[in-house]
Amino acid sequence: MPTVTVDGEKSFEVESGKKLVLAIEDAGIDILHKCGGNAKCTTCRVEILGGDLEPPVPAESARLAREADLPSNVRLSCQVRVNGDLWVAVKNRASQQGIDAGPRPMD
């Protein structure tokens, strides 16, 4: 099973093919996902620090293209499937924003 490491603070195994946002949340790490995993917002974005990923799906590419000044290694965790080891940084946490994380994304 692949291992995901988040912000250097926690590493955990993930079932292959699981959405990254769900893997992060299920590991007890605070992550925003206001649109419920539909690539409509960018609150679940992560910075990919290492690992191999599939290219973004069209919905993810289109949504990220609407944002200014995002580094090329930023992805929407609701659109990423974990198929290998990953090192990521969560960019938005509900506790830091003082808001609810949002509806749980579907798998």
From TrEMBL:
Signal peptide: none annotated. CDD domains: fer2. Keywords: FAD, Flavoprotein. It comes from the Bacteria. Residues 2-94 form the 2Fe-2S ferredoxin-type domain. It holds the Pfam family Fer2. InterPro entries: 2Fe-2S_ferredoxin-like_sf, 2Fe-2S_ferredoxin-type, Beta-grasp_dom_sf. PROSITE patterns: 2FE2S_FER_2. One of its GO terms (molecular function) is iron-sulfur cluster binding. Gene3D superfamilies: 3.10.20.30. PANTHER family: NA(+)-TRANSLOCATING NADH-QUINONE REDUCTASE SUBUNIT, NAD(P)H-FLAVIN REDUCTASE. This is 2Fe-2S ferredoxin-5.
